[in-house]
Amino acid sequence: MNKIPPLFTIISAVYNVAEYLPRYLDSIAAQTIQHDKLELILVIDGSLDTSEQIIREWALNSTISTKIITKENGGQASARNRGLDVAQGEWLTFCDPDDFLAADYFSQLEGFIENNQNVSIIASRLVSYHEDRDEFRHDHPLEKRFHKGTRVVDLNSQPNFFHMHGPTSIVRRANVRSRNLKFNESLRFSFEDAHFVASYILNLATPSIGYCTEAHYYYRKRQSGDSAVQTSKLREEKYTQILVDGHLDLIKLSTRISPRLPDWLQHLLIYDILWYFRGDRRVGAPSRFLSTDIKQKFHSYISEILDHISIVNIHAFDSMPTDWDLRYALILGYKDFDYGVPRVYAMEIDADRSLTLLRYVYKSDAPDELVVYKGQVRKPTMVSSRAVKFFDRVMFHHRFVWIPARGRFSLELDGRPAPLELKGPTREKFEIRPYSASVRILGYDLFSDYSPKNAPIVDLDKIVRHSEDDSARQAHHFLSRFGIFKSKVSSTSLSNKVQSFDSKSQEHLDFFDVHRASKYKDAWVFMDRPERANDNAEHLYREILQKHKDINAWFILKRDSSDWERLSNEGFRLLPYGEVDYFAALIRSVVFASSHMDKYISDPLPDELKKYKRWKFVFLQHGITKDDLSSWFNSKDISLLITSTRDEYRSIVDPESNYRFGSKEVELTGFPRHDSLMGHHFTQPTWILLSPTWRDWLFTTDVASGSRTLIPDFASSDFAKNWHQVLQSKEILFAAKSKGLEVAFLPHPFLEPYLDNLDIPEHVRILRWSELPFAEILARTALLITDYSSTAFEAAYINTPVVYFQFDKDLVLNGAHTYERGYFNYKQDGFGPCVHTSDKVVEAVISLFEDGEDLLYIRRKHETFKYRDRNNSKRVVSAIRKRIQPESVGRILK
């Protein structure tokens, strides 16, 4: 009698997963389906840990038919292919052994198959298991495919329902065998799943997929971050070989069947390509480490792939949120496509300055712009561009044009009228989906089981307008003014809304009481950090306190700050951070100026108060911008950005820069705190100062509060070891004493709570930012030893010698910290020698003391700063005033 083959065969490639195997195997053993319907094939792919031992011990007690195959390491694809050779199940799947399954996983799949006899491929539902938080989440980017429940989807009708994940794919063995399908073994760490699944679907007479929502596959996101998926982005082959043997090979297979790629395959390739571009724009992206040759090859392959992908599908792609920079990058960066005259969008109005922002994109050269304003042809002057780059190639540019907000206008680009729209860009419609048309026109889904039985819900305004209850009408009018509710509700819920009126309105009336409204009217609010002052905001506030009595100025600080008493005694009008008056002042302010821009500073209001924001945010900076901070800056609503050096200013406003700001937002004024620094110019030096900055990878950060916690093994880090060697250097101590100096250490404020971890020698004087004004600390410095800190610019400002200690430059300068490399090159532009070992630091210090400072560095210091006249604060106040006053037409258009 012939043995009945199993219903499912599970093929798992095993490589160094001993830590995760028990949970995976236990989840197989716990399956509620009859165990004789399962076959488990475990291919040990040259694993070096105890995985094989764990498997063999488990198999001895298992009631599931288990085959164990051992082989030399060849990659996941080769291991799965060995499993395919011996598989006996009617259906095949490829679960990863560091993941695990819900107990009813195969029972759910069995039920689905019984109800859908003609289906040839099934997708189970991937649920992310976040190992570090022991938490399950439905957060996969393609999760929305399961939102309408279990069903079979025709990919010809819904191409955005493509599938590409091997472990959650269940395929018929007969189809695999008849077409001799194998995993592509040249794809050793990425895209092998997508290649196999797409190849399988390409061979189906009707490309359809069954989505089984109830079958949960738990995908482990490792805390260590060392899974194949998590580490693949670090390999240069991902940017070359994967595209050739994965994407282009799939295109070759598809074109053998039909010259035009099916839409679902185009969507699949777009999805995968977009992850490359998403990854590249992250700070510290692995692509920063790629050579120029690899990047050129990458662009060449992407261009070849996109030759087979239509612009229609790039616009139609909606499998995950995709911003316009990404779509434009694919279309304008690679496709030979002319949109004609750019479509121009009126995006923003600056009411205080009476300006309207027009925005459009162009591919290479900015068109000639003319504004027809009140019948006269004029040239706009407040313009800026931002180059959008991926993998070091400029794909296109954003253009920003400010024009007068009052008066009729039109825009001509290269002599042709430009179409104008009063909203942001929307996707071009090259196709209409029945569901979308039904919902947009009828107001409901014509093709669902539901049909409307009642009239559409009437807008709340219409209900109140026809209500006989005058009190309800008044309540709604008042609540609308404060934005308490604006949603559409049925008439039956109106009474509930009105009942909440008293408590809601009273809460807002209490907040906006008459006293506070008058006290903080048109305020200028200043802040450095909540817990500490002594930066540009403090110095600018002092200028206003002394010379601009007409400004209603306030300074924010925590009550328990060590600076509170000092500033209070000086006459600063202090607002306690986080308390009611802090919020009341912000809401009534016209200017909010800070030297920092963390989220809790730049976006300080709780959600229920955000609608009251009307201030102009002035970013005073706390250090000169020498690195590329564009991704961070561009995400902020900055009305005025203060700069201090010529190169810094140019690097931001240059049309080919990554920044979106131009002369409208950026001013070269100098830093307010530099005025005070010049006042200490003749102070007698006291110490050699060691002042390193922090490293992003040494901390975990609370996004909401901005607080940072040092990692547990900080003491063994390269950072701690290298700075400890310099701190305990006897040669530096001797050199200091020979000049009548001491050795002082000023750590970054983030490091201050963890000084015990550095084991600082007794002879080193520890300085803290809260103890002395930074200007005094630096003025008493004979020589500064730092790494990448912008404090080197402060030293250069008063001609203090600098040594850069950059033992980890390959990491920091290639984006592993919180920024990307910018215009500033430490060797070509720096104010002192760059060294990479503690021994070289010692040599540089001795050389400076014995031979004096190199003339090269003296010249660089002299050429860097435009202003050394102690009028920086004065210029900043003038720049702020300009941002809250209407602009003359003559300054906007010439």
Low-confidence stretches: 225-233, 449-509
> In one word, what is the shape?
globular
Q: What Rg is obtained from the alpha carbons, in whole angstroms?
A: 32 Å
Taking all residues together, what is the mean pLDDT? 86
Number of strands: 34
- Quickly give the structural class: alpha/beta
The proportion of residues in beta strands is 15-25%
Instruction: Compute the separation of the termini in Å.
Output: 95 Å
The count of helical stretches stands at 35
Helix content: 25-40%
Main β-sheet description: 10 strands, mixed
List its salient traits.
10-stranded mixed sheet, 35 helices, 894 residues
Summarize the structure.
This protein has 894 residues and is α/β, with parallel strands linked by helices.
Q: Strands, helices and their partners?
A:
Layout: E1 8-14, H1 21-29, E2 38-45, H2 51-60, E3 65-71, H3 76-86, E4 91-93, E5 100-101, H4 105-115, E6 121-130, E7 135-137, E8 151-154, E9 169-172, H5 173-178, H6 192-202, E10 208-221, H7 228-231, H8 241-257, H9 263-280, H10 292-306, H11 311-316, H12 324-334, E11 344-350, E12 355-362, E13 369-373, E14 376-378, E15 383-390, E16 393-404, E17 409-413, E18 416-417, E19 420-421, H13 434-442, H14 460-465, H15 470-481, H16 491-499, H17 501-511, H18 514-519, E20 523-527, H19 536-547, E21 553-557, H20 564-570, E22 574-576, H21 580-588, E23 589-594, H22 599-602, E24 616-619, H23 630-633, E25 640-643, H24 646-653, E26 666-668, H25 672-679, E27 687-690, E28 699-701, E29 708-710, H26 718-727, H27 730-738, E30 742-745, E31 764-766, H28 774-779, E32 781-786, H29 791-797, E33 802-805, H30 809-816, H31 826-829, E34 834-835, H32 838-851, H33 855-864, H34 872-883, H35 889-892
Parallel strand pairs: 1-2, 1-4, 2-3, 6-10, 11-19, 20-21, 20-23, 21-22, 23-24, 24-25, 25-26, 27-30, 27-32, 30-31, 32-33, 33-34
Antiparallel strand pairs: 4-9, 5-10, 6-7, 6-9, 8-10, 11-12, 12-16, 13-14, 13-17, 15-16, 17-18, 28-29
Helix pairs in contact: 6-8, 8-10, 19-25, 19-34, 25-34, 26-32
